[in-house]
Amino acid sequence: MRHQFGKVAVLFGGKSGEREVSLKSGSAVLAALQRQGVNAEAFDPATRPLHDLEDYDLAMISLHGRFGEDGAMQGALELLGIPYTGSGVMASAIGMDKWRTKMMWTAAGISTPAFELVNADSDFDAIEKKLGLPLFVKPANEGSSIGISKVKVAGALKAAYELAAESDPLVIAEQFVGGGEYTVGILGDSALPIVRIVPKNEFYDYEAKYLRDDTEYRCPSGLSSEKEAQIQQEALQAFNVIGCSDWGRVDFLMDEAGKHYFLEVNTSPGMTDHSLVPMAAKAAGIGFDALVLRILELAHVG
Known about the structure:
Helix content: 25-40%
CATH superfamily of the largest domain: ATP-grasp fold, B domain
Shape: globular
CATH architecture of the largest domain: 2-Layer Sandwich
CATH class of the largest domain: Alpha Beta
Number of helices: 11
Number of domains: 3
Strand content: 15-25%
CATH topology of the largest domain: D-amino Acid Aminotransferase, Chain A, domain 1
Largest sheet: 6 strands, antiparallel
Distance between the termini: 24 Å
Order of helices and strands: HEHEEHHHEHEEHEEEEHEHEEHH
Low-confidence stretches: none
């Protein structure tokens, strides 16, 4: 195994708002590789110069958010000629940007909740009326639900916009879809079993994702086998439209009538004890160590 992969840098930590989550993901990934005899070492781009990567044969990306999931690190690895895991430069950049992802999906006929770009000069009352209440407000280029608000009363959109704009100048308002939240893990050319997410607080925010132990995850999802197969196929299409490859996650919402809407794509999903791709892989008979090794096997340049 050590000979097969050479010297592997597990990239985690970084300097995004998701650093703490990345530290947990990367630590778990590093331990899994080392358990299987891979010559893997920790590499934190926040504390080491990138040219040190020239000493490695492969890069396992366990970074989340900006400077790791947005194409920046992928571009650096391309220039260095080092094979890396996950999607390429452009797909990573688009996938990090919820607004551009949704525009591409809309153009391709893939259903996504209605949305509006919001800025300081927007007509907030008009957007509230157009999208209806409640609605969500999100930084377009953040993950882990950082900066997200649920606007429930008229006149509250402006304050929600200002909070989101602290994380990213690009902010979207999005129609509320209230019939359930789900996710589809992608591994290679296949979709993993769907996971339904049932948070005990108002929505699946940072606390529900990483800090609480009462968030409920259902796999099997409770969908009919026909519906699950349909959504898995469409999730692969949504993943491919963005240009994503190798592994990731596509989140979707269901309305009360049973219609699904794709929400966003994650090109470097979490790999913590609360994370969804390992959960779905386990349901498919793939243990955590085997999952990590499979992702590493898919490493590429370009």
